[in-house]
Design goal:
- Keywords: Carbohydrate metabolism, Hydrolase, Magnesium, Metal-binding.
- The protein is α/β, with parallel strands linked by helices and about 220 residues long.
- It has two domains: about 140 residues, Rossmann fold; about 70 residues.
- A six-stranded parallel β-sheet has the order 3-2-1-4-5-6, with helices on both faces.
- Strand 4, helix 8 and strand 5 form a beta-alpha-beta unit.
- Helix 1 crosses helix 4 and helix 3 crosses helix 4.
- It is globular.
- The mean pLDDT is about 95.
Length: about 220
């Protein structure tokens, strides 16, 4: 029996992926790194540190140190996301419905906790979550299962009692590695990716989620 739903943030609850693409390309190019949209698409679902590591490995060290690049890119992206408040369609209604039916909910994200807190508050969905889990607080990031297992532990449920809801392949692998039932909600352009066959369920919209819980 499913007692909890643990959501990824970027691309699942908020439509932030286009913002990340735009901001990252702009930021790296301004800092002398010739990054393209194809590069960004390949790294979808990766934490900021991994983006910076990829850029430095591919194009060499420039004027700024890794830590400075990570901090500046994060600040730039978070400010854009908080200003835009790009909540996905049907998110608030779905979260309210699950809360009404006593389903525990958490976020499990590669993003820093302060970013998660700022997003859920600015988008008006903070009240629905029992816990916000950031992989940056843990030893391993996605696709390692640590952030999902940590979220389940904080909710007081077993992994077998959880849905992990994701939009990226890396995130799906993380949820599967945590031994959770994995629900994917792919972007339309990625709908036919054969890798989604690894998921337990594939949905077109988050509004379909309650039907999986027989609610």
């Amino acid at each position: 029996m499913i007692k909890a739903v643990i959501f990824d943030m970027d691309g699942t609850l908020i439509d932030s992926q286009p913002i990340w693409y735009r901001v990252s390309i702009d930021f790296f190019q301004k800092n002398g790194f010739p990054i393209t949209m194809d590069d960004m698409i390949k790294l979808t679902g990766s934490p900021v540190g991994k983006l910076v590591d990829f850029v430095l490995q591919a194009h060499g060290q420039k004027e700024k140190e890794r830590a400075q690049l990570v901090a500046e890119l994060m600040d730039y992206a978070v400010s854009e996301i908080l200003a835009t408040k790009p909540l996905m369609p049907n998110v608030k209604e779905t979260l309210a419905f699950l809360k009404q039916h006593q389903i525990k909910m958490a976020v499990a994200s590669a993003s820093p906790r302060n970013m998660l807190q700022g997003i859920v508050e600015s988008c008006g969905i903070a009240e629905y979550f029992d816990y916000l889990a950031s992989a940056e607080d843990l030893a391993f990031n996605k696709p390692h299962p640590a952030v999902y297992l940590h979220a389940a532990q904080q909710l007081g449920v077993s992994a077998a009692e959880c849905f992990a809801v994701e939009d990226s392949v890396l995130g799906m692998i993380s949820g599967k590695a945590a031994s959770m039932k994995t629900v994917v909600i792919p972007a339309q352009a990625e709908w036919d990716d054969p890798r989604w066959s690894l998921a337990d369920f594939k949905l077109a919209n988050i509004a379909e989620l309650p039907t999986l819980l027989n609610l």
